[in-house]
Hints:
Structural class: mainly beta
Number of strands: 53
Number of domains: 4
Strand order of the largest sheet: 39-46-45-42-43
Helix content: under 10%
Shape: globular
Low-confidence stretches: 1-19, 39-43, 348-352, 452-456
Amino acid sequence: MFMKRIVTILVLLLIYKLSLSQEWDGDFNGIDSLWNESPPSSINAISILDMYNYNDTILYLGGGFAYVNESSANSFASWNTDTIRVYQEGVDWGGVDAIIKYKDTLYIGGSFNTASGSPNTTNIAVWNGSNWQSTNLGQADSDVHDFCIYHDTLFVAGNFGHIGALECNKIAAYNGEEWINVGSMGMWTKALAVFNDELYAGGYWGVRKYLGGAEWETFNPGPNGYVNELMVDTINSLLLVGGEFSHIGEEVSVCSAIWDGFNWISTGWGGSTTIWPQASAYYRGEFYTGNGAVIEDDVWTFWIRKWNGEAWDSIGGTFDSTISSLEVFRDTLYIGGYFAFWGGDSPVPDKRNKGMVKLFMPENGCDYLKPRINAYTDTFYLNNGEAVVNLYNNNPYADSWDWDFGDSQTGDIKDPVHTYTQVGEYNVQVTVSQEGCVKTANKTIYIELGSNSNIQNYENIQMQVFPNPSSNGFTLKTSLPNYKNAEIKIVGLNGHLKDIISVTSETTVIPTKGWKPGAYVCNLFVDGKLVKAEKLIYE
C-alpha cells in the first residue's frame, strides 16, 4: 500500500509538472472570431494556411475565411496582438497560401482569382499601402505556394508556368526591378528555404539545391515522395524536410527527415502522417510540426509534436482537424489550420471559431544546443606518412569550440584541419560553449595504410588543381591507374557539400557558377575512400 501511494504521488507530481511546462490559449486580444457563414457565432469550417511574422511586430494571417469579427476580410488580415486589420476586400474566390515582405512591400500568393478585383492579380498580388495591385510583370497562371528571399532576390514557388509573359516552370525570381527565369522544376514546388547560405526547394520530385543561373541539383538519395515543407535550425545547422514520403534511401523516415549538410538523419516512424506546407516551426531550439494522426474507431486525432534531437515528443492539443500552419511570434508558437476546436473541448455554439490557437513553452535550458562532428568519410589514409583530416562542427554561432583529436593534440576553432601520423582508431571530441551552455559531441575516425584498395599505393597518386586561386572555375589534374569509381566532392563554406563531380579522365573541370568568394576543399575519392584533398581559393 505504501509503495502504491508513492507511485500515485509521483504520477500526480509528473502531471502537475507537465501542466506547468506548457500553456495553451485560444484567446486573441482584438480577434473575437474568424468565420465564413452567417451568423458569425456559428461553428463553421475556416482555414489558416499561412502565418507570417514580420519583425515580431505584425502577424499576417492567410487562408480561407470570409470575415474577421464583423469586417469582411476574404482570406487575409494582420494582427499586432491588439488590433486586427483587413486589406480592402481581400481576395476573390480562393485562399492565401503564402505571405512575405520584400523590400518593404507586402506580397501574397495562393489560389485566388483576384485581389479585391484589381486587374492582373490572379494568384499573386502586391499591397501598395492602400490598394492591391499586380506585380510589374503581371499575374501567375496557376497557384503560388511559397516565397523566399535569397541573396536579396525574391524567389516564388508554385504550380505556375508563366508570370505575365515570362515562362517560368514552377519557379521564378524577382530582384526588385525585373523578373528572372531561374530554371525549370517540371512539377509543382511547395517549399523554399535558405540553409547555410544556399537555397533549397521542396516539391513533387523531393529536395533540390540551387546551383545558380537556371540550374538545380536533385538530392539522391532523398525523400521517396513529395516534399511540402522546409524549416531551418540556424543554431545547429539543420534542415527539417516534411511531406508525404516513407524513406530516405534505405532508411525509414516517415513524412519527415533532417539534412545536416553532410548526411540525412532519419526521424523514424513517429506515428506521423503528412506534414503540410507551412506546418512546421523552429521554437525553443526544437522542430515543431503539426498533423500527427491516429485512427481510433474511425476517429482521427491531430496534435503538435516536437523533435528533441533523437525522437518525437507529443505536445498534445487534440485538434479535431488538420493543422496547416505554424509560426513563432513574440516568443509564442501560433498554430493554424482547419480545426474548429482543440484540447478535447466540444464546440460551444456561442463561441466564434478562430481556426487558430497559441502555445507557450517555457525555456528548455541548454536543450537547444545539439553539437555534431562531421567529416566526408570515417576512414583516412596515410600519404607520405601523414593523413590530413578536415573536421566540421555544426554550431556557427558558438562562443568557443574545444577539440580533442584523440592523439593528445587539441584545437580551438570551429572547423579544424588536423594531421595524423600514425595508423589507429581515434575518438575525436568537441566541446561547444554558447551563452553559458556547454555540450560535447564525439566521432570515431580511422587512419589506415592504403594497401586494402584497388589502388595499392596512395602515395603515388598525383592531384593538382589550377589556377588556384581562381575567379572563374578550376581544373583538376589527376594521375590514376584507371578512372573507375573516382569522384571529387567539393566542400563549401562551413564544410557543407557544394558539388560532386565524376573523375573520368586526367583532367576534370570544376565549375564555380553560384559560388561565393572564400575557401573550399576539393576531396578526391577512389572506391569510396578519401585519398587526396586540396584547398581551393575562389575570389
